[in-house]
Amino acid sequence: LENLWILAADENIDVIVISESWYNENVLNNHVNIPGYNEPYRCDRQDGYGGVAIYASTKLNVRRCEPFEMGTVDNVCTKIEMIKHSVYVLGLYRPTKVSNPLFTAFINDFEEKVQNILSIISPTDVLIIAGDLNVHCNSWYVNPRASKTFGTQLVQVLDSLGLEQVLDCPNYFR
Q1: FRET pair for 59, CA 20 to 30 Å: which of 8, 104, 119, 174?
Q2: pLDDT in tens for each of the 174 residues of the chain?
Q3: Cβ neighbours of residue 162 closer than 8 Å, sequence gap 6 or more
Q4: Nearest to 57 by CA among 118, 9, 126
Q5: Phi then psi for 151, rounded to 5 degrees?
């Protein structure tokens, strides 16, 4: 956490999304607070694995948007109100070993919640989706042995919603 404090201060970062936070009810906010940031908006898991945390600078007007959160994946949604627009930040984490029916439920839930956000935002508002969904797709440069089915489904949903993935290379290598 100390390295995160240094990075946040050195780079003047306004919002930090952590997937696989590994926080649970025993991890108190005063143990994971970052100076200059509000208390984290958290989605913890009982087992202490996974989870999501969003930290926002105290300079920002931010609130949690629970109606846009999903029950099928670890996630937190926040709304940052700026002078002329708002920024919605949706932080996600999906474990690697999830069955097809659970992934299908997640995809349906994801599509519905993102459509709900997109239906209320103005043309000047921004939606940022960040995190780790543990999926692969042929259009990404990843392990050729990894299953691509889930990634292809996710790309199809992103395309149907008019969204695009910014990362064009893997962020994890074995």
Answers
A1: 119
A2: 778 888 888 898 999 999 999 999 999 999 999 999 999 999 998 888 899 999 999 999 999 999 999 988 999 999 999 999 999 999 999 888 777 888 899 999 999 999 999 999 999 999 999 998 888 766 655 555 555 778 888 888 999 999 988 876 666 655
A3: 118
A4: 9
A5: -65, -40
Residue at 10: amino acid letter: D
Q: What strands, in cross-sheet order, belong to the sheet with 15-19? A: 15-19, 52-56, 41-43
What is the DSSP annotation of the chain?
-HHHHHHHHHHT-SEEEEES----TTS-HHHH--TTBPPPEEE--TTSSS-EEEEEBTTSEEEE-GGG--SSSEEEEEEEE-SS-EEEEEEEE--S---HHHHHHHHHHHHHHHHHHHHH--TT-EEEEEEE-----TTS---TTS--HHHHHHHHHHHHTT------S-S---
pTM across the whole model:
0.89
